[in-house]
Design goal:
Bound molecules: cytidine-5'-triphosphate, magnesium ion
Helix content: 40-55%
Keywords: ATP-binding, Magnesium, Metal-binding, Nucleotide-binding, Nucleotidyltransferase, RNA repair, RNA-binding, Transferase, tRNA processing
Distance between the termini: 73 Å
Protein name: CCA tRNA nucleotidyltransferase
Pfam families: PolyA_pol, PolyA_pol_RNAbd
CATH superfamily of one domain: Beta Polymerase, domain 2
Number of helices: 19
Cofactor: Mg(2+)
InterPro entries: CCA_bact, NT_sf, PolA_pol_head_dom, PolyA_RNA-bd, tRNA_CCA-adding_enzyme
Order of helices and strands: HEHEHEEEEEHEEHEHEHHHHHHHHHHHHH
CATH topology of one domain: Beta Polymerase, domain 2
């Protein structure tokens, strides 16, 4: 038997591209992954055609050649609270309109046939033109992740507004406790993607307006002050860890928030470091740059500088330190060039050579290295 080719796998199947690919094409944006919906097919038929079931709760398959996702047209009904607890129905009687009707936003509920024909029963194109994020229908409320998606799309499409009825529905969902059932992995997935958009502040604003922020990240809910910082960070192309760290400057306890959100270690570390070291990066940034002959205050300044570099583990993690400085200077007057110069200065100390000098007295090595680094700071 010859393996199924791209053509034979879908030959005679009633398929449409749906979701983000259609939306982005209509917006004139570059194409991402295509998602397909399949009408009037059974899981057995898909398998016979060489499609591979992705597993999990939903009837979704990967194309044998393109590996794009093909989902059987379905209707969903909520059988429990929160993200889990769906039952769904696929079958020959499920229409394209049914399938589009259980989707989140009208702009994501447009289908396109292989011949280019658009199927748009819920006014998605009009909402694209009017720049509105609007839910398709009551089924929106069956999946609390959609509140996060809405917020993420607001951050991505900065000139779109959220329809008042959609905002009201999200508020009602939050009030009824739906947001409490969100699993941390899904929350982090959406928040991290939203932070990487051009206008992350709009995500936070939507989450705040709907009340969801108070549920998923209680420490952040009260402080809009960091919102503008996030957009500047996006404008400067900061990596995720730096953006997340700036977001967390609004939290009393970034470590607790990171645990709650299950943030990856590099994000959690950067958030903790920024909160802990921002005062030192700012103050010592002035004093360690003081004139060399300014006496004892200068020595104290150098000591503070070295201590800050040590706490940041800057010698071992220079890239992380550079990103920390990049984030810090958005939040406070911090001079990254001076800190980099200090790091370069202590890097000139050959710790191995110092250790060999004190080979007879190993207990002295640590302090000798430190003294050498302080001398290097005063010389630079
Ligand atoms: N919680 C969800 C997730 C997805 N969808 C539907 O499934 C489509 C595909 O989902 P996904 O690929 O996650 O999002 P996209 O809209 O394609 O956006 P992105 O550009 O981020 O892929 C969406 O457009 C939407 O129609 C939904 O209704 N509710
Ligand atoms: Mg997609």
């Amino acid at each position: 038997m010859t393996p199924p080719t791209r053509l034979s796998a879908t030959q005679g199947l009633d398929v449409y591209v749906v979701g983000g690919a259609v939306r982005d094409a209509l917006l004139g944006l570059p194409a991402g992954d295509r998602d397909w919906v399949v009408l009037r097919a059974t899981p057995e038929e898909m398998s016979d055609r060489g499609f591979v079931p992705v597993g999990g709760d939903f009837p979704v398959f990967l194309h044998p050649a393109t590996h794009e996702e093909y989902a059987l047209a379905r209707t969903e009904r909520k059988s429990g609270r929160g993200y889990r607890g769906f039952t769904f129905h696929t079958g020959a009687d499920v229409t394209l309109e049914d399938d589009l009707g259980r989707r989140d936003l009208t702009i994501n509920a447009i289908a396109q046939a292989p011949d280019g024909r658009l199927v748009d029963p819920y006014g998605g194109r009009q909402d694209l033109e009017r720049r509105v994020l609007r839910h398709v229908g009551p089924a929106f409320a069956e999946d609390p992740v959609r509140i996060l998606r809405l917020a993420r799309f607001a951050a991505r499409f900065a000139d779109f507004s959220v329809a008042p009825e959609t905002l009201a529905l999200c508020r009602a969902m939050v009030e009824s406790g739906e947001a409490d059932a969100l699993v941390p992995e899904r929350v982090w997935r959406e928040i991290s993607r939203g932070l990487m958009q051009d206008h992350p502040s709009r995500m936070i604003a939507v989450l705040r307006d709907t009340g969801a922020l108070a549920r998923i990240a209680p420490g952040l809910a009260a402080d809009p002050a960091t919102d503008a910082l996030l957009d500047r960070a996006a404008g400067e192309g900061l990596p995720l860890a730096g953006r997340y760290a700036l977001l967390c400057t609004a939290a009393a306890d970034p470590a607790a928030l990171s645990r709650r959100l299950r943030a990856p270690a590099e994000c959690a570390d950067q958030a903790r470091l920024l909160k802990e070291l921002l005062p030192a990066l700012r103050e010592a940034g002035g004093s360690h740059a003081a004139p060399r002959d300014s006496g004892s205050g200068d020595a104290a300044g150098r000591d503070a500088t070295l201590r800050t570099l040590e706490r940041a583990d800057a010698l071992r993690k220079p890239q992380r330190f550079a990103e920390l400085l990049q984030a810090a200077r958005l939040a406070a007057p911090v001079d990254p060039a001076r800190w980099q110069a200090s790091l370069d200065a202590i890097r000139t100390v050959d710790a191995g050579a110092v250790a060999r000098e004190h080979a007879g007295d190993p207990g002295r090595i640590k302090d000798a290295v430190r003294q050498a680094r302080l001398r290097a700071l005063s010389a630079h």
